[in-house]
TrEMBL record:
Membrane topology designation: Multi-pass membrane protein
Similarity remark: Belongs to the NhaA Na(+)/H(+) (TC 2.A.33) antiporter family.
Origin organism lineage: Bacteria, Bacillati, Actinomycetota, Actinomycetes, Pseudonocardiales
Function: Na(+)/H(+) antiporter that extrudes sodium in exchange for external protons.
Catalytic activity, as annotated: Na(+)(in) + 2 H(+)(out) = Na(+)(out) + 2 H(+)(in)
GO biological process, alphabetically ordered: regulation of pH
Species annotation: Actinokineospora iranica
Molecular function GO terms recorded: sodium:proton antiporter activity
Gene: nhaA
Protein name in UniProt: Na(+)/H(+) antiporter NhaA
Principal subcellular localisation of the protein: membrane
Transmembrane annotation, as ranges: 27-46, 113-133, 139-158, 167-188, 194-214, 226-248, 268-290, 302-326, 341-363, 375-395
Locations listed in the record: Cell inner membrane; Cell membrane
Alphabetically ordered keywords of this record: Antiport, Cell membrane, Ion transport, Membrane, Sodium, Sodium transport, Transmembrane, Transmembrane helix, Transport
Entry-linked HAMAP family: NhaA
Length: 411
């Protein structure tokens, strides 16, 4: 029996420790991300604004001859470094699906349904505000939640917020990411090149064969992974999807006694949280708001579509679907988390930021529409952070003074 307890304790540690590190890195990374965003905005609106654009428009060639890739620095960040970010996203999705909160169908049902509500309603509201045409291509912008910023807000609120709130927010945000990645792959792609797509698929088969053969060395997979990224880049599917797929193919359970996924996540997540994502913000958040651009955005349907989608869509979509699911006895909330706190989580989910900025650049080639969308993202994320914090603090105090009762039913 002692051995059973030790085995159970070991399993719990393997699940809890990576989650604890993930939350810590996301919270601290959120602070760095905020600093990079402020720096980008100040730089882009300063007398040195020309230098900002000049830097990110500088073209860099990597490789030689027929395999050379030439992109400006902004696209090297968006197409190259962000593939590493999405690889880590894929790792976290895989871990959650195999050994984490989403492995249990009943536990996964509620955050999955809540996330679906928090995707469908924002997209619908965006289209209702904006309509069709070129502006309507941005319907994917208000779909995803920025985990780094949202968890950062929870870290600021401290221990007064129940642990179940963080767990529910992470679960919803991860399902959000799964849906957003699928939309990027299907909707925001260029014309497909069948040859390169077939080459990428063939290389993925090579990865599967290497796994089947028991190849455990990460270094052996690096050249194949780089080729998959290169082939995906030329296929018309956004190159970052290669990162997600490779992350999902990483074994979540130990291989020859070694936790490959946990090791990769432990080593790579700080790099993406403290380097890749802040660089992305620095390259993409520098919106020039001078010359009446801010006033134009205030009157823009795109900006309002993003704002309404992220704020109203997320709150009503996530909160409403969760309430209905609990009424129908579909799924359960984490222990110690009453339904009333779901509204605070739903508001925090309106912090779209990183993935919203990413989709905005994919959706709009017109710099005016892109600027309007980014202003909407900034405004919505700021309001969502303030609203979510206020709701969680106020409703947590109410929970503390209320009589104890069931925490897993709709209230």
């Amino acid at each position: 029996m002692a051995d059973d307890r030790e085995a159970g304790s070991g399993l719990a540690q393997r699940v809890v420790d990576p989650l604890r590190r993930f939350v810590h890195d996301e919270a601290a990374g959120g602070v760095v991300l905020l600093m990079a965003t402020v720096a980008a905005l100040v730089w882009a609106n300063s007398p040195a604004a020309a230098g900002y654009e000049g830097l990110w428009n500088f073209r860099l060639t990597v490789g030689a001859g027929p395999v050379a890739v030439t992109e400006d620095l902004r696209h090297w960040v968006n197409d190259g470094l962000m593939a590493l970010f999405f690889f880590v996203v894929g790792l976290e999705i895989k871990r959650e699906l195999v050994v984490g909160e989403l492995r249990d169908r009943r536990a996964a049902a509620l955050p999955a349904l809540a996330a679906l509500g928090g995707v469908l309603l924002p997209a619908l509201l965006f289209l209702l505000v904006v309509g069709g045409g070129p502006e309507g291509r941005g319907w994917g912008i208000p779909l995803a939640t920025d985990i780094a910023f949202a968890v950062g807000v929870l870290a600021v609120l401290g221990s007064r917020i129940p642990a179940g709130v963080k767990l529910f927010l992470l679960s919803v945000a991860i399902v959000d990411d799964i849906i957003a990645v699928g939309i990027i792959a299907v909707v925001y792609t260029d014309a497909l090149d069948g040859g390169w797509l077939l080459a990428a698929a063939g290389a993925l088969v090579v990865v599967a064969v290497m796994r089947w053969a028991g190849v455990a060395s990460v270094a052996a997979y690096v050249p194949v992974g780089l080729f998959i990224w290169y082939a995906t880049l030329h296929s018309g599917v956004h190159a970052t999807i290669a990162g997600v797929v490779l992350g999902l193919m990483t074994p979540a359970r130990p291989v020859d006694g070694r936790g490959v996924l946990d090791s990769l996540q432990h080593n790579l997540h700080p790099i993406t949280a403290f380097t890749v994502v802040p660089l992305f913000a620095l390259a993409n958040a520098g919106v020039d708001l001078r010359g009446g651009a801010l006033g134009d955005a205030v009157g823009s349907q795109v900006a309002w579509g993003v704002l309404v989608g992220l704020l109203v869509g997320k709150v009503v979509g996530i909160g409403g679907v969760t309430w209905l699911a609990l009424r129908l006895r579909i799924g359960t909330l984490p222990t110690g988390m009453p339904m009333r706190l779901v509204w605070g989580v739903a508001a925090l989910a309106g912090i779209g930021f990183t993935v919203s900025l990413f989709i905005a650049d994919l959706a709009y080639t017109d710099p005016v529409l892109s600027t309007h969308a980014k202003v909407g993202i900034f405004a919505a994320s700021a309001v969502a952070a303030a609203l979510g914090s206020g709701l969680l603090i106020g409703l947590t105090r109410r929970s503390a003074t209320a009589a104890p009762g069931p925490a897993r039913t709709a209230e």
